[in-house]
Amino acid sequence: MASLLPSIPVINMDDLKPGTESWISTSQKVTHALEEYGCFMAVYESVSKELRNDVLDSLKSLFNLPKEAKIKNTSDKPFHGYMGPIPIRPLYESMGIDHPTSLDDVQNFSNLMWPSGNDHFSNHLSSAPKADETNLGAEIHTDKSFITILGQINPVNGLQVEIKDGKWVDVEILPSSFVVLATDPFMAWSNGRVKPPCHRVIMDGEEDRHSTVLFSYKKGIIETPEELVDEEHRSKFKPFDHYKFLEFFSKDEIYLDEKAIKLFCGA
């Protein structure tokens, strides 16, 4: 059972301009939050309630499509495209969209799902359990992207994060906010300075949980900056290709191993 307190840090991201005192102060807060928790909640009021409602409607339309339509969204990259429920995640279903900030790519995805036309889109959903279903929406894991930004679209919580002392924290995502999570590759990039938080999704109601997730992946080689390596902080990870790590991690025997990044590129 998770504890309601302490929670993860909450940082206001509105009206920030590079180089200003507020920018520098916020940067310091972000650094501290990542080093201490591996995550934080970013408040960004510019995302309106109307936009969230529009996204929620789009999510429902997308995941209500028949399976034969959803599986058209294929990808040769691990963990991209459509991912349906599997035995270890029976309540989880996701729809990945490559380059979601590109209008052309989003339109191409929309045309694939709705040949007759539909401009709405989204990219992630977890379903709530019914009376005879398990309450685990997503198993305990750390992320394999470079950085993860999670947005809760409807008021159905369930995200839990493990903090340093081993306690699980229920994360009640505030309106107009996003949860930013460090990942395994980010840990390697930071030379172990930032640890990715273990997290899971627990469902305990009859209502579906809808969320959007931005997974950032780095093309090419990830390596630790020189300024993070010295005599007291020896290099802990070798440079590595992000997508080759995903291929390595997607192997059945590695899939749930939290030490996968160290097995892949540990120095």
Automatic annotation (TrEMBL):
<dbReference type="InterPro" id="IPR050231">
    <property type="entry name" value="Iron_ascorbate_oxido_reductase"/>
</dbReference>
<keyword id="KW-0408">Iron</keyword>
<protein>
    <recommendedName>
        <fullName>2-oxoglutarate-dependent dioxygenase</fullName>
    </recommendedName>
</protein>
<feature type="domain" description="Non-haem dioxygenase N-terminal">
    <location>
        <begin position="8"/>
        <end position="84"/>
    </location>
</feature>
<dbReference type="GO" id="GO:0046872">
    <property type="term" value="F:metal ion binding"/>
</dbReference>
<dbReference type="InterPro" id="IPR027443">
    <property type="entry name" value="IPNS-like_sf"/>
</dbReference>
<feature type="domain" description="Isopenicillin N synthase-like Fe(2+) 2OG dioxygenase">
    <location>
        <begin position="129"/>
        <end position="215"/>
    </location>
</feature>
<dbReference type="Pfam" id="PF14226">
    <property type="entry name" value="DIOX_N"/>
</dbReference>
<keyword id="KW-0479">Metal-binding</keyword>
<dbReference type="InterPro" id="IPR044861">
    <property type="entry name" value="IPNS-like_FE2OG_OXY"/>
</dbReference>
<dbReference type="InterPro" id="IPR026992">
    <property type="entry name" value="DIOX_N"/>
</dbReference>
<dbReference type="Pfam" id="PF03171">
    <property type="entry name" value="2OG-FeII_Oxy"/>
</dbReference>
